[in-house]
Amino acid sequence: MLFSSSPLLIDTLRQRRVKLSYLIDFPAILWSGRANSRNFPANIYPFRASSHFLYFAGFPLENAAIRLYEGRLELFMDNAPKDNALWQGETPQRDQIAELMGADAAYPLTELFNYLEDAATIVVQNPITANEQRQLLNCPLVSAKEPQGIDLELTQAVIHLRLTHDQFAINELRQAAEISVEAHKIGMKATKTAQLEAQVRAAMEGVIMSHNMTCSYNSIVTVHGEVLHNQQYHHPLQPGDLLLADVGAETPMGWAADITRTWPVSGTFSPTQRDIYHLVLKAHDTCIDSIKPGIEYQDIHRMAATVIAEGLVELGILKGTPEDLVEQDAHALFFPHGIGHLLGLDVHDMEDLGDLAGYEPGRVRSQRFGWCFLRLNRPLKPGMLVTIEPGFYQVPAILNNPKNRKKYKTVVNWKRLEQFADVRGIRIEDDVLVTEIEPEILTKNLPTSIAEIEALVQN
Amino acid sequence: MLFSSSPLLIDTLRQRRVKLSYLIDFPAILWSGRANSRNFPANIYPFRASSHFLYFAGFPLENAAIRLYEGRLELFMDNAPKDNALWQGETPQRDQIAELMGADAAYPLTELFNYLEDAATIVVQNPITANEQRQLLNCPLVSAKEPQGIDLELTQAVIHLRLTHDQFAINELRQAAEISVEAHKIGMKATKTAQLEAQVRAAMEGVIMSHNMTCSYNSIVTVHGEVLHNQQYHHPLQPGDLLLADVGAETPMGWAADITRTWPVSGTFSPTQRDIYHLVLKAHDTCIDSIKPGIEYQDIHRMAATVIAEGLVELGILKGTPEDLVEQDAHALFFPHGIGHLLGLDVHDMEDLGDLAGYEPGRVRSQRFGWCFLRLNRPLKPGMLVTIEPGFYQVPAILNNPKNRKKYKTVVNWKRLEQFADVRGIRIEDDVLVTEIEPEILTKNLPTSIAEIEALVQN
């Protein structure tokens, strides 16, 4: 299954490396990495190949490398030792895999030693393989975030390619989105009888697993949505709670989806929850409607901030004009993160490269409260896949911070805010493909409206 | 939840380190390790602390160390940075955690530098932390399998303690067993409507996840039970197939269960499947009945081999006397692995130490075909938890091996064997606690009989 090929895959991989050859005139060697051990060597975490390797090699081969040069693909990997067949079954041999991926040549891993000259690379996450990369290429590859020389040139070329998705990738991304949509629907339906966050998580990840996919990141399924990356699942579900679920699937070839929905445990939003949900949804819809080639992603972020500020003024939580409030970062009291990020083989696509992929060359992260967590700052292009994920949170660490209390003393109606105590965190997130015409919401089959969500939870 | 304590836990941790202080007269420093990154730094695999750390610290703290000396416990860890509260929520501070674990003192991690003198350690799995251990202690800690000097003394002391389980550990192990039993029952029930292995796996892991536990190892759920560590889940379920499921839970504090059952996809074993199942079950029951203090685990392995050989003679698959066949390793054609292993914080408990824990000092692994995969070779003692997991497999790599075909030409009735083609792999595995009296099967609530298993699958 991991090793099923197709003419489209072989052709796609060829096109990717030919395009790479137009961008760089030196060889690139990409390593897949190794499995990480959990508590003893044989008890490993499920292997995840480096995304850069996957992009050009297609298959998640363990401890392999590929060399790309002038449109050619050479595979370096060792055949499994004979003993392996008892424990792992018969696995495809190097030459078979080379054929499945359309490689021009295939060698044992030790042969790589003879093909290193003038080659650039990107450092992988696995520390042992990263160390091998450094030793073999005999240069101080600090991290994938700070490449130098030809490694930087290679990184920029790979970013250029991976920023927009080809048809094969889009097919995979659609599949990941479809299964993730299904997982969220089942999660909503499972809430009625669930007593713990963990039970809803299990129902959702069960859908992903039953389609033989994995999660593209550690799921967030929590009644404490105000903890942005909450990865605890032990809280009981109470009737007045909102449940925030940020769960996405990854196809066997590594392509990711990323969806968030927030629903009422009881099946019915309270009036205050409805009010806030509506404003987050308005921000979500406004942003998606604005997506088109050429628009700056930071302008979409500002749009979300403005819609949220405007809504909070209408609800009497903030005081002032939306534009002024956004200028003061007052929206960030409740919407501290960015409006989204790139999505592809990584859920934060190419975040291993720091901001090299997310930020247009010459731009750097803002230090400002409302902008410092913006992960993407580029004009959009057809073929880019981005998330749109506005939210509203009451984060104690932000709202109880004495500096914020002082700075935003007159801007926030703290008394009024208290009436919204049953809204700890709401986020609505979809995956949106930029096209020449209308944006395509890959996750559109999952409803966002209050009526439809309540109906699913009440089933 | 991860940080809920109890007087029993605090007292247990104290008893463990006091016992350690009777065995070594130098300080021990144990590191917990770090989370491993998947495809970019923030996308981590769920953190699993080193089991040696967990045994004495109780809680799975990330990037922490403890120093144990003369019955004292000192905790070294840094408080989470302030920014962390936005993403991870408010996490307990070092001093709170120290109190929960009954530590005598707590310091920032950098302070560890002043407490290194004469200290021994055990190398963790995470390569970055392992490197830090080497640098800080300024010695060539190769791997946990080959400790030297005081590291070896510490390792032997820890093995002595961890070989038998205290009441707190047994409570945890019972919980892991109970949830794993439930997972298997649900797996059997889910088979009726499942079309893929992945769907049964999802149902089983869903039970574990819904109880906020994790899997203690990568599940095996396959119609190709002859691949011993099969971790692919894409095969369709066919009516005549047997499904082999080797799935176990791990409690939040890290204690493991390990269960295997094999059931017919259709709900009814075929006559040949019944025959083989019966002989594996007979081996299973005979071994468990023989468990008592003082018995050699290798003798239990030999017992399983003999029962299997005897049964295969009765079925006309092997020819000769059972004892002769075992002497020739003929049983290993169909039962190539060992009868089981230690179970505790690791599913193969302390396998990070190679065979130092599994093998009585002075004993080494046999090279023989029927014995080389035996993971435990010690006399049993009350408080030890072991698995008993006999099996029958038709592994092509073994049965089609020309050497084996030649060596066992007259011993195997190859023609007769062909009639058992619908039995690719059967394993029955339970977790058994050695006590002064009857062995306690922690997993006894999961049936082993054909009638009960068929009833569960047919539900």
TrEMBL record, chains A, B:
Gene3D superfamilies: Creatinase/methionine aminopeptidase superfamily (3.90.230.10), Creatinase/prolidase N-terminal domain (3.40.350.10)
Gene Ontology CC entries for this record: cytosol
EC numbers, comma separated: 3.4.11.9
Record keywords: Aminopeptidase, Hydrolase, Manganese, Metal-binding, Protease
Catalytic activity: Release of any N-terminal amino acid, including proline, that is linked to proline, even from a dipeptide or tripeptide
Cofactor(s) required for function per UniProt: Mn(2+)
GO BP annotation list: proteolysis
Pfam families found in the cross-reference section: AMP_N, Peptidase_M24
Enzyme class: hydrolase
Aminopeptidase P N-terminal domain span: 8-135
Xref: SMART domains: AMP_N (SM01011)
Example of a GO MF term: metalloaminopeptidase activity
SUPFAM superfamilies, alphabetized: Creatinase/aminopeptidase, Creatinase/prolidase N-terminal domain
Family the entry assigns: Belongs to the peptidase M24B family.
Name of the protein this chain belongs to: Xaa-Pro aminopeptidase
